Amino acid sequence: MSRLPGRGRVDRGAPLKFTFDGREFSGFRGDTLASALLANDVHRVATSIKYGRPRGVYAAGVEDATALVQVEEPFPEPMLSATTVELFDGLVARGLSGQGRLAAEPDPARYDGKHVHCDVLVVGAGPAGLAAAREAGGRVLLVDDQPEPGGSLLGSGAAGEVPDGVRYLSRTTAFGVYDDGFVLALERRTDHLGIAPERISRQRVWRIRAKEIVLATGAHERPVVFGGNDRPGILLAGAARSYLHRYGVLAGRRVVVFTTNDSAYDAAFDLADAGAEIAVIADARETVPADLLDAASARGIAIRRGHGVVGTDGDERVTSAEIAELGAPHGERFACDLLLVSGGWNPAVHLFSQARGPLRYAPELGAYVPDGDLPHIRVVGAASGDGLPETKVLWQVPGREPAASEVDTRFVDLQRDATVSDVLRATGAGLRSLEHVKRYTTIGTAHDQGKTSGLLAAGITADALGLDLATQRPTTYRPPYTSVPFAALAGRNRGDLLDPARVTALHPWHVAHGAKFENIGQWKRPWYYPRPGEDLETAVLRECRAARTGVALMDGSTLGKIDVQGPDAAAFLDLLYTNMMSSLKVGRIRYGVMCGVDGMVIDDGTVIRVAEDRFLTTTTTGNAAMILEWMEEWLQTEWPHLRVFATSVTEHWATIPLVGPRSRAVLAKVAPELDVSNEAFGFMTWRDAVVAGLPARVCRISFSGELAYEINVPSWSGIALWEALLEAGAEYGITPYGTETMHVLRAEKGYPIIGQETDATVTPHDLGMSWAVSKKMRDFLGKRSFARAENQRPDRKQLVGLLPQDPAVLLPEGGQLIETDHVPEPPVRMLGHVTSSYRSAALGRTFALALVRSGRERVGQTLYVPVGEEVVPVTVTESVLFDPEGIRRDG
C-alpha cells in the first residue's frame, strides 16, 4: 500500500470495496478510482489504442489522457477517466484500450435537466473563483467540477469556503458557453452511495442564463515530450502533489523530477518530506532560483541544470529514467519508480474561446492567454495567466532521434498514440495549418480533447516550420469542454418520452378490437383491423371492398387542424396557398396546396371558411406542427402587420370519415334533422348539425373518391359517435378501416400523399395540379419560382400511374424505372421511381403511382422496373385509375 497515515482529505472511517480488472481492492470515501488504484500500487490502468502499450495514471483531473476505464457496475459506462470517477462501494471497472462498451440494457437511473437564472455565474471554486463570488452582488451561482470547493488549494491539502448567500453546485462542469450569457453545465450525481441506481438521478444538465460570467477555470500542467514518455509511473508533477495532499497517496518511493519551471520543486519537496527519495531533479533551465537550490540542498536532492529526460525503461511501470544534457543523445540513468514532469502551465481558456474570446501567445508561459475581456465575460486567476510560473519553453527534449526501423516512442498525444514522427510527417506533406495537422495526426480529437497534447503539437509544428506561435492561431476550442454522455443531453427524453406516442380519443376502442397500429407523426394510427386468420393483404382487400361497395369508417382525428382567425386571415391564407382562399364563401370548403419559396410542394389540405374572419385549415398528420411553425414564422418575420392568430386545434376534434355508397343512409339515421341530399348538402360544403345526439360539424369531403362525410365532434365525444355510427351502419355491414386501406383508396383515385408522392423537388404542376395554382393572385409563396427555367423543363418528373403487365406483380416502392427490358451496363439512365404500390380490390389487380420524367407524354408506353434478378414491364397510365369521371363522388 502507498497510502500514508494521517494525510489526505479522504474519510478513513468510511472504507469502500471495489473491483478493478477482476481484482478486489479497498479505498475510502473521497477517493477517485485513480487515487485508490495508486494507493494499492496499481499503476498500469489501460492499454494504448494503437500500439497496445501499457498506460497508467498521468494526471489528477479532467486533463488525464491515459487512465481510461470502463465502469461495469452498477451500470456500464464507457470511456471514463479514472481520475474523475469517484470511488463508491461495489464499483466494478476495468481498463480500456481506447474503446468501451455501451450498455445492452436500459439505464435504470434518471437523467435530469434544470434551468436557472443568475446575475453572476462564477465557473471554478478555486481561490480566484471564491474571491470573485465573494465580491459579486445579486444572485450568484458558483459551479465547480470537484466534490468540495478549493480548486488548487485541494492539491496542497487545504480547502475553500463558499461565501454566504452564494448558490454552489459541486461536481458540476461547465462545458459550453454560448451567446447571451447561456451556459451548459453537467452535474455528476453518482455520489449517492448505497442508494439503488433506479432511485437516483445519475447526471443533470444545467441550463444557465447569466447576466455576467466570471471564468476562474484555472490551468492545466503541460508535459514535455521525450522518448518513452508514456510509461505507467510517469505523472505530471502537480498531480503527484495532489495525490499526496488530497488522498494521502505517495505515488512512488524513488522519484526523478523533470521540469522547465519552479512549480515542480514544490512537488519534489513535498514528496521528499513525505518519505520519498528524490533521485535527481533535471531542470531544463540553466539558471535556478537560489531559494530552490538551497531547499533542494537541505534535503539532499541533486539538481542537474540544462538537463532533461531522453529515455525511460520499464514494462508495467517505469523503472529508470535517462537524464542527459539538452541536445545530447545519451546521459546518466537513474533508477526510479516514479517520474514527475512539468513543462509549464496552460491556462484553461476553453470556455472563453468558445465565447469567441480572442487569445494571445504569452512567450513567458509558452501558452495562450485571454487577450482582454468580453462584454459580460471576464477571466480571473490562473485562467488569465495570473500567478503562473514563467517557464523555459520546451516542447520536446532534443537529442535522441529514433532509427527508421524503430517505433517512435516520443508521444505527443498519449490517447491517440500520436508521436513526433506523425507531426513531422504532416508538416513534411505540406500541411502548415494547426487545424490541418490536427486532423492529419488526430492529435487532440480523443476523449481528453488535447488538454495536454494540443499545445505540444502546435509548438512542435511551429518549430518544424520555423513559425512563431505568436502569429499562429491555436486550434478551435469547441463545446463540450469534457465528455458529456448522450443520456445526459437527452435527460428524461428517452424510451417512451424520446418520441412521445400520441393517441386519439378512439384509441381504447381500436385496441379493444384488435387493430394493428403504425406510427405517423408521433400518432398511433390504426393500420388495419385483422379478423381471425387474416394477414395485412387480406384484411385490407376486405376493408377496401366495404368502402367501395357498402359503407366504412375510419379514425381521421390525427389530421392536422389549425384555426386561423383575425381581420386579415383571408389575405394571409392567400399568401400561403397557391390558390385563392379569400373568395371562399362561409359554409364552403376548398382544397389547397402550400409551396415553399422554391415552389416545391410542402403540404396540402382543405380550408373551411367558418366566418368572414375565421378559417379552419387542415394539414397532413405528419406536417401539422411544421405548418403551424411555418405560419408563425411568416407572421412574425415577414408579415407582422397582418392581424392574424393561428392556433392548433388538432386534439380538440375527433374526426370520423364515413365513406361509401351507403354512407348517406347511415348519416341520415344518426342525423335525422340534417338534409343529406346532394341538392341540400353539396360536395365541398359543411354543416353544423346534431349527430347521434352530439353537436357536430359535418363536411362533404372525400379522400377516396366515394360519397363521403367527415364528421367532427369534440374529442371527448369521439367514442360515443363512433359506436353510434357502427350501430346505425350494422345493417349495411359497416366496416372500420385503417391507414393502409386509406392509402389504397386514395391511390386508386390518383390523390397524392405529401412526402410519399413528393420529395421536396415536386411542384403542383408535376402532380397534375395546375388547376390548384391561381393565375389571378398577384403573389403567394412559391409563385415566382414556377417561372424558373428548371421548373419549366419538359422532362421534369410527373405523377403517373403504372400497371404491371402481370397483374399479380406488386412493384416495390422506391423501384427505379428504366427504358430497356434489361439492366444495361452502368451508368443506367433512371427515368423515375415508384412512389406507391398496392393490390386493388376494385381494379382486381396490382397498380402503382410513380414520378417519371416527361411522365404524361409517356402514357401508353411500356417501361421497366428492375426487381431482384428480373425486369418487370409496366404500362404508363394516367394517375387516376378508378372512376376517372368522378361519378361515384355524389353517390
How is this structure best summarized?
Helices cover 18% and strands 31% of the residues.
Structure explained in plain terms:
- With 891 residues, the chain is α+β, with helices and mostly antiparallel strands.
- It is 18% helix and 31% strand.
- It is built from 17 helices and 47 strands.
- Strands 8, 9, 10, 11, 12, 13 and 26 form a seven-stranded mixed β-sheet that branches. A six-stranded mixed β-sheet has the order 38-39-40-37-31-41. A six-stranded antiparallel β-sheet has the order 43-44-45-42-47-46.
- Strand 33 (589-595) and strand 34 (601-611) form a beta hairpin.
- The chain starts with 10 loop residues before the first strand and ends in a 14-residue tail after the last strand.
Strand coverage percent: 25-35%
* Number of helices in the DSSP assignment: 17
Question: How many β-strand runs?
Answer: 47
Helix % is 10-25%
Overall mean pLDDT: 94
Shape: elongated
What can be said about the biggest beta sheet? 7 strands, mixed
Assembly classification: single chain
Summarize this structure as a short list of keywords or feature phrases.
single chain, 891 residues, alpha+beta, seven-stranded mixed beta sheet, six-stranded mixed beta sheet, 47 strands, 18% helix, 31% strand, elongated
Write the layout of secondary structure elements.
Elements: E1 11-20, E2 23-29, H1 33-39, E3 44-47, E4 54-56, E5 68-73, E6 77-81, E7 91-95, E8 110-123, H2 127-135, E9 140-143, E10 167-169, E11 172-177, E12 182-188, E13 201-215, E14 219-221, E15 234-236, H3 237-247, E16 254-259, H4 263-273, E17 277-283, H5 290-298, E18 303-305, E19 307-314, E20 318-325, E21 332-335, E22 338-342, E23 345-347, H6 350-354, E24 359-362, E25 367-370, E26 377-379, E27 411-413, E28 418-419, H7 420-428, H8 434-441, H9 454-465, H10 486-490, H11 507-512, E29 516-520, E30 523-528, H12 536-549, E31 552-553, E32 560-565, H13 569-576, E33 589-595, E34 601-611, E35 614-619, H14 624-637, E36 645-648, E37 653-659, H15 663-670, E38 686-691, E39 694-699, E40 708-714, H16 718-728, E41 735-736, H17 739-748, E42 797-804, E43 816-817, E44 832-840, E45 845-853, E46 862-867, E47 870-877
Parallel strand pairs: 1-7, 8-9, 8-13, 9-10, 13-26, 15-22, 16-17, 16-22, 17-18, 31-41
Antiparallel strand pairs: 1-2, 3-4, 5-6, 5-7, 11-12, 12-13, 14-23, 19-20, 20-21, 24-25, 27-28, 29-30, 31-37, 32-35, 32-36, 33-34, 34-35, 37-40, 38-39, 39-40, 42-45, 42-47, 43-44, 44-45, 46-47
